[in-house]
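Below is how a single chain appears once it has passed through the pipeline. First comes the sequence as given, then the structure the pipeline wrote out for it. We keep one example in the README because the format questions we get most often are answered faster by looking than by reading.
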Amino acid sequence: MLSINDLKNGSYVTIDGAPYQVLEVAHLHIGRGGSSVQTRIKNLLTGQVFQRNYKPSDYFDEADIEKTPVKFIYSHRSEYWFTDPADVLKRLSLKENVLGAGAKFLKPNLEVTALVFEGKIVSIILPIKVDLKVVEAPPAVRGNTAQGATKMVKLESGAEVTVPLFIGEGDVLKINTETGEYYERMEKA
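Resulting structure:
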C-alpha cells in the first residue's frame, strides 16, 4: 500500500483495478485545513489523463507492471505490430490509441520497452532520443535568417518536426521523443 507521500512522478498505481501512471504530483497545504496531493494521472488502459486531489487518508496499491523489450516491425491502418527480440515468431499488435503520441516516432527494427499489466501490454516506452531520416524538406529561402529561421520537415516515420534551415532531405536527425523536438543532425546527406 502506498500513501499520498509515496506518490512520485512516473510511479504506477492501481485505482479501482485499473493501472495508472502518475504524471505529476504537487503537495498542497491551504491555511488551517489539512494537506492534500494534487495529481495528474494517466489511465494506461484507455490513455485518458485525469487531474485528481487525494487526502492523507487515501491509499493506493502499487501496480504490478512488468517491463519487457519488444521490437517494432511495421504499422498498417492504425495497428502497430511488434515482435519479441528473442523469438521473432511471437508477434503482437497494438492500436494507435494505446501507443499515444509516441507512435509517430516508431521506425522498423526500433527496440522499445513494453509495459505489461496482468499479461496484457498496456503501453510502450520509447527511447528518449531516436535517429530518423528526413524524407521531405523544403529548400531554405535566402534572406530568411534574421531571426533563427526554421522550417517543417517530414521524417521517415511520418512525423513532422520543426528544424533549422540548414537541414536537407536525406539528413539523419536525432529527435527527442518526449518533446517531439529536433535535437541534432547526426549525418549529412
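The radius of gyration is 21 Å.

See the next section for the split statistics.
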